[in-house]
Fold each of these.
Amino acid sequence: MDTKFMKSVSQKKQGKDYDPHISSVAGTIFGVILVVTIISAIAMDGRVNGGWIGLYVVGMTGIGTYLLFALKVASQWEKAVVLRLGKFHGLRGPGAFWILPIIDAIPAWIDHRVMVTAFSAERTLTRDTVPVDVDAVLFWLVWDAEKAALEVKDYEMAISWASQTALREIIGQMTLADILVGRSKMDADLQKIIDERTTPWGITVQSVEIRDVIIPQDLEDAMSREAQAERERQARVILGESEKQIAASFAEASRAYVNNPTALHLRAMNMLFEGLKEKGALVIVPSSAVDTMNLGAMSGMVSIAQNNLPKENMK
């Protein structure tokens, strides 16, 4: 049983336990009549028989009480469901309207504004047996006040339970991967299922939005390691592709030196010069390259030139 969901439903129910909807206009009229009656009774004291004064007070108080309970005012977004002797008599509002006290009763005031209901499914198994916690928000409104009042006892609680059961049903039909990447489809499926259940109650669902999907910490860590390994694999693949491109570039460049040994020697001398011009630099040259391009003689000449350079400067 979802404790958060039950707590929110009970709080919502407690807020609806008592809603007399006594109009402030009727209360003001009742107060004015009561004050006028008291002042009039005091003024008539000693002039009029006490019995007539008592009858006058009772009559005016009865009129004020009738107005207090007969005059009702519904807000712009409300509809009042009127029952006469227990049978549906009609809808009243918005604005001021009259009822017959004792004979008429208003068991429900229906709000026609867009309502927001938060619901959740805790530790619900997906199709691949992964427990998840999913929180969602439902946007809905009452389009038929008569059905909402007569077809279901508490339509707000009913739509909350219908939303939760629909969410559990959807989660059980989807894998974890589908839930994580396919929230828009999940929202649409939820809206369709909940709307089919609430339409007979005069309620339509405008939209459903998944707020959060919480998975077990161990599974979250495993998915993180898997994602990291996938990124490393992609990095190695990219590095391998880069090496292939570099090798292809070297192969293409080598074809320019195949029939031109002079160009190859010049390139080798340039490479050797670039390596030796830095003080303390070390150049490693393959023995095959030394024999093929006569780099041994060239490196010896460069070494002699470097040894003689300081002597010439000293002179």
Amino acid sequence: MEHLFNNNLFERKNFFSTINYIEAKSVIDLLADLKPSPSINKNILIKDISSKSLIRKNSIIFLDELYSNPTKEDLLVISNIDQKNNIDYIKVNNISQAYNKILNFMFPHEDIHADNFDNYNYLNGSYISKYSKIDDSVEIGSNCFIGRGVEIKKNTIIKNNVVIKNSIIEKNVTICDNSTIGSTGFGFNLNCMGSKHVNPHIGTVILKENVYIGANCTIDRGKIDFTFIGKNSMLDNLIHIAHNVIIGENVCIAAQTGISGSSIIGNNVVIGGQVGIAGHIKIGDKCIIAARSGVTKSIPDNSKVAGFPAIDIKKWKKFIINQRVSIK
């Protein structure tokens, strides 16, 4: 996993027309209504946001636990607990609200500003950002929208009515009609609901070579880092992939499946239609998940599961047989 993150570092500045840098001590003022309790020795100039998986230079990280690597001198921790590792941090009473305030200030984005500056060329019925990077061999259908910073490599096919934002797409990818790649993820706080309190998503989607995306699919961009689909993987129609999901190579997913945020799907996995996969779990390599299963916990390599909650498929078949016998 660490190898994956290190090899897919992207430039945040490519996707935003403006990034507002902020000094660490000014963050205290920005968070004034969250009753910040600061411990800051160095007035770091904050240029980016980090996750636990990928630490960036001159950045902020949001944690509800102790930071385990005190050697980073250019990192500011925002936390709801006191940090004891002699690092610069600001304690607040609500991390989610702190995240929203800081990111909304640093990265003006489409969820809070109708005029999220971009500049488009109108080509063959589609709007394509002048700040995107698209190989000449790419085929783009009618009524598509391709936003700022998007990179699309050789021999990719984009069919009609496709929206692509915050994405890096490798060669030989196909994206079918009416799909949206790089949409805002569903980040929220149950204690502070509504459209004005959606968590900003400043990450990307990465589609590796030979990926196939069916019609009417949505793939949300990462909250801070990325949502990832490995090479040769195929998605049927009407599939939703939530933020931060990582899908391995040679994965086949049938229609109407939904994969919740931050889940990891291994290599050579087959997922039947109408499957629901809970968030923050791991599906091992070479697993098979039967149609209409509900996967609520992690599954080891080479598993075959079915039902809700999903269990070993042999046990599930016995359960169904016993139910039918008891009904008779």
Amino acid sequence: MKTDHDLRVPLGHWCAGCSCAGLGGRPSRRLFGAALLAGGAAAAWPALARDGVDVGPPSGFSRLVSADQIEQAATQQYAQLRQQAAQKGALAPDGNPQVLRLRAIAKRIIPYTYEWNERARQWRWEVNVIGSKQINAFCMPGGKIAFYYGILEQLQLSDDEVAMVMGHEMTHALREHARERMGKTAATRGAIEIGAALFGLGNGGRYLADMGGQLLTLKFGREDESEADLVGLELAARAGYDPHAGVTLWQKMAAANKGAPPQWMSTHPSGPTRIRDLESNIPKVEGLYQRAERPAQVFAPPPRAAARPASVQEE
């Protein structure tokens, strides 16, 4: 597999601050109706908690756009990304050791996702590796996962650390953070367009049709990131991966940030606060890890580029 440094896609799925315009300060009159609708939807959803891991109900804003349509848009966008990578010779083949590794880890985690989102039972999960030096990874709505080769090679991620990344990204999809962000964006367009969006009509219909492109640039808020950290730890621990790897993962990210900040860090800032939060959450899931069956096979990270012969193009 050739690594393609120029294959740069602004995925924006490892994110920090909310960039939703119009949601701060005093709400406008046309936003007020949308907020009432969203609040009513939130009240209808129970809080989700499992073995002490409590994240509360999903945002009511999620109800302002269709889950089916967002997942369909994500499927289409993911297929385009795969095609783009394949055309550049940067889509790892099914037999690539890192593809086999990631799919084995995902296979262990996926059965534990269903209680967090019943829709996940019907998702057609996919896991692929894109040959790029970028330090990045994502999971789109509907379970479409991709890791960039750079995050595996440059950070020399262990299986436990890969599981932390994967669990985090899966949580964004399971908790429908993209759907929530789109709902908030729709809300700023006013109640008239929201009504159209709900029924697939008028300007709202055009908004939903453009969802695929938006999925590449959405940014998640601080609460979304904290939620993804916590539930990601829980998913990985249940699958038999050490939650302490969440700390070593972010320590590696902090070290990687000393040079040119990687794509991953531009949207997921690290720092002592995040690491402290992870450390405080580990006791909530450590019992799950202790009771979990350990993976039968342990995989190795890819060799660093400097350690490989120049003639090696694939693993």
Amino acid sequence: MSTLGVEKRVKVIMVTVLAALCTAWFPPGPSIGPEQSAAPRESRIPVGTASLYVREIGQGPAVIVLHGGPDFDHSYLVPELDRLSDKFHLIYYDQRGRGRSADGVKPEDVTLESDIADVDKVRQYFKLDSVVILGHSWGTVLALEYALRHPELVSRLILMNPAPASQDDFKEMRRERLEKLGADADRLTAMRAGAGYKEGDPDAVAAYYRIHFKAAFARPENLDKIIARLRSSFTKEGILKSRAIENRLMDDTWLLPGYNLAPRLKVLKVPTLVINSDHEIIPASTPEHITEAIPKAQMVTLRDCGHFSYLECPAAVREGIDAFFARK
């Protein structure tokens, strides 16, 4: 496991969070402003022959939220992440071909470049001169790729439980996962070979993810919440389409020989917050390498927290984000 380079003077903040603090963003009472209690607004943004489903909530500085997967949609992030809407204008959207942005999209229509272009379509639609980008898991890769192409349009980056930004880190992630899974690795292999999984049966796929994400939580009861959300959005057609899209995006990134964002990130001047957790399914070297590479990056490591940190440790996530925006 690597350590943060001293020469980069990257500050690592270790935040210890009691389990009781991880149940709410705010104490009960009037501290939640009227913006947060407002109903979300929905809209659609045309992209080619299709359109992106958009859900926004709150007021204040605009934050475009990029979900993970890359075969999921934004629904697994709410309602917990909505708690930020007391201070921010949160703009979620389902990435092209996924969730409610799937109609009129063929898997071959989606590439890394089209996904990056769609981020900018969202920015333009809301007439934003610059924007904060918040990515979770795979969404951090998309956030970094966008920022590298349009650094002048990104005011800040929040990389929450980041996915690998290089092929080497992706290989390390797979190697470590196999070790940690133990006998479950064979179970997952058998499930992938089964008819239900291959045909996109929602129950079979949900059962697969239940094992896949079992080690992604500090508190196992939160696994049920995530699986229920994923299952509620699964359809056979949607699963097969998003799976094909995931394969294409992996070909454009992690499976591309020599894929490595680090050398380009060294010249990125965007202030960046990297949120890591101590019960991750992604090796600690991944967020460390990203933090090392970005000159204005800072990493916060949350204790007693898993890959879905916004769900398990909302108070600590909020504390880290508030401190990040307090810095000039």
